């Protein structure tokens, strides 16, 4: 059942983020584009709640490292559950193999990384600067940035530049804490997250970032949503109340 659910979720994501609205000409183009999506985004960057918010490729490596035994949610996975996990990691491995099948077009093989398509470090730096400034100025969420000095705000920007550079395939090193640690206790709601996502969307549109690149950026950002949002409802806790939880 778990394996079937994982397959269904993959197909749903693939349809929504890559296939829908696109007209592939030769079958080779479809194989190449879908292979790149699965290999570079779904398997290597997308965080999956069922496997401790790891990309499938990382989970598979850890699973093998522990001899097929992993503790998830305080429970060691054995017997049927273990077989389900094996099947899930085999699915991840199969998808990697599929992505490497011959039949990709020369254009697909030569596709630039998302980092390059965003304009490299300079392009990402400009996006993050505009994005952060819009957050600081928005009265709906700027309470999260109260008390930040100019230097602290500059550090906030630099951490996000390095993070976006890293997750899009660039050479930068992540210098921030994991998303869950950095945001836990702030009382961030689903509504707050949508406001932030809206600002990012506006900046990407303003800077004329293409729709495909925007889709890939948001696939990464939405993969972090569960680690950032403390409260799934629309009512925000006060900062004091959030700290007392």
Structural account:
This protein has 245 residues and is mainly alpha-helical. The chain has helices at residues 2-19, 27-42, 56-65, 79-99, 106-109, 114-117, 120-137, 150-167, 179-183, 190-206, 211-223, 225-228, 239-244, and strands at residues 71-72, 75-76. The protein has a two-stranded antiparallel ribbon. Strand 1 (71-72) and strand 2 form a beta hairpin. Helix 7 crosses helix 8. The longest helix has 21 residues, at 79-99. The two termini are 36 Å apart. Mean pLDDT is 75; it is low at 77-110 and 237-245.
Count of discrete structural domains: 2
Give the amount of beta strand, in percent. under 5%
Poorly predicted runs of 5 or more residues: 77-110, 237-245
Oligomeric state of the chains?
single chain
What would CATH call the class of the largest domain? Mainly Alpha
Average pLDDT level: 75
Structural class: mainly alpha
Q: Please describe the biggest sheet, giving its number of strands, its sense, and whether it closes into a barrel.
A: 2 strands, antiparallel
| Order of SSEs | HHHEEHHHHHHHHHH
Number of strands: 2
> How are the strands of the largest sheet arranged?
1-2
* CATH fold naming of the largest domain: Globin-like
- Cα-to-Cα separation, first versus last residue: 36 Å
Tell the overall outline.
globular
> Radius of gyration from the CA trace?
20 Å
Helix content: 55-70%
């Amino acid at each position: 059942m778990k394996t079937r659910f994982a397959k269904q979720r993959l197909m749903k994501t693939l349809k929504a983020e890559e296939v829908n609205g696109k007209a592939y000409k030769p079958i080779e183009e479809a194989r190449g584009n879908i292979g790149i999506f699965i290999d570079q985004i779904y398997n290597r960057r997308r965080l999956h709640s069922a496997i401790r918010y790891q990309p499938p490729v990382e989970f598979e490596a850890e699973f093998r490292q522990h001899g097929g035994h992993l503790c998830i949610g305080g429970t060691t996975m054995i017997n049927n559950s273990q077989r389900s996990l094996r099947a899930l990691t085999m699915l991840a491995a199969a998808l990697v193999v599929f992505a490497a099948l011959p039949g990709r077009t020369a254009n697909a093989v030569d596709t630039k990384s998302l980092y390059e398509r965003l304009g490299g470090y300079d392009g990402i730096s400009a996006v993050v600067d505009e994005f952060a400034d819009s957050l600081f100025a928005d009265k709906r969420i700027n309470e999260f940035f109260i008390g930040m000095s100019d230097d602290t705000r500059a550090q906030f920007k630099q951490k996000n530049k390095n993070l976006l550079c890293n997750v899009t395939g660039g050479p930068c090193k992540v210098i921030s804490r994991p998303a869950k640690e950095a945001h836990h206790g702030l009382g961030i709601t689903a509504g707050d997250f949508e406001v932030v996502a809206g600002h990012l969307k506006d900046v990407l549109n303003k800077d004329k970032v293409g729709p495909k690149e925007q889709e890939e950026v948001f696939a990464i950002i939405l993969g972090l949503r569960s680690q950032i949002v403390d409260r799934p409802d629309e009512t925000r806790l006060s900062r004091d109340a959030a700290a007392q939880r």
